[in-house]
Every structure is written in C-alpha cells, then in structure tokens.
Amino acid sequence: MLLNDILKGKRLVLASNSPRRQELLKGLDVDFEVWQTNHDNESYPSDLSVDQVPMYLAKHKASFFTDRLTNDIILITCDTIVICDGAILGKPFDYSDAFKILQQLSGNKHTVITGVCLSVKSKSMCFSSQTDVYFRNITDDEINYYVNRYSPYDKAGAYGIQEWIGFVGIEKIEGSYFNVMGLPVQRLHNELIKFLK
Predict the structure, then answer these.
(1) Alpha-carbon span 62 to 92, nearest angstrom
(2) Using an 8 Å Cβ cutoff, are 134 and 170 in contact?
C-alpha cells in the first residue's frame, strides 16, 4: 500500500519553519500542513552524547504541540546538527562566526545528523539519519564570496549543500543527500509507513 493511501482520512503536519524541509516533504507526493514553530530553545542535557542530540531536540519540539494532536493528526518534528572534530557546530551568529565554521569544515570531514520525531496523540517514535560530508580545501576568498552572497545564518554548519558552496566545495558524501538538506525523506517515507500500520 502506498503512503498516500495510508494517509487517507488523516492530516500530516510538518512543524518546521524551514522552506527546505517543506520542499523536501513535497517530494513524497503527500498532502501536508505546516505548523509554524517559535521555540528557539535548543538546549539539551550536557551528558547527552552528540549523536543523540538531534532526536532529543526533535522530541522536545514535538512536546509543544501535544495538546493539538489527535490520532488522525500525524506530527513531524525535526532537528539537524553538524558535528566536526567531535563538537556540534550550530547556526552562525554573524559573518565572522560563519567564516570560522567554514574554515573548520575546509579540507575536513564532518557528520550531519537529522533527528525526526513522529507523533500522534497516543504514541510517538523517533529516528535519526547520519551522513558524512567531505569538503575539499576551500579558500578564504571562496568562503568570503559564499557567506556574503548566500548569508547562511539559518543553517547548521553555516552552509547549504544545495547552494554554490556545495557544488564547488564538497568532494563526496556518504549517506543521504537530502539528510544534509535537513530531512532524510527516503527514511521518513519508510518510517511513516511503519508508524501508521
């Protein structure tokens, strides 16, 4: 049975302000609503391992919508982090922070992990998807051009793989390309089918 058939009579909701996630979810050919989120608190327990952080934050985001859920409303919440040299790289605060983050990624491998939480009134489940990304050595001139032209201040790790820097700077990836954009849609498709059976 196709996901579209399983979703008949139900409402699929993506709680995310990210236009990239909305675009990716459209790729599954399913009808969905978008609920805006205004929850900027992305803190997590200090003893949590870094690979568990995205699922923790995705579940935390879902907790703000518990009162609005029924068993016919399927809520999707997500969080994406970038890990380089064992540390989480967040969204850049300003130009110099974005520049510094991209210098750290230059000639280096980093890991992108997206945590996804699926919720209905009576249950929830979370999963994560991981992709390793390898940048070639990128020059300061290239970083300066990218940051000034694309203003990647809303992106974890200070870049979008679908933008110029991804075309010219990324040598290879191991894992889902869409996960690096912010939503592992192939895995989400399969997990939704399992979750709704």
Answers:
(1) 24
(2) yes
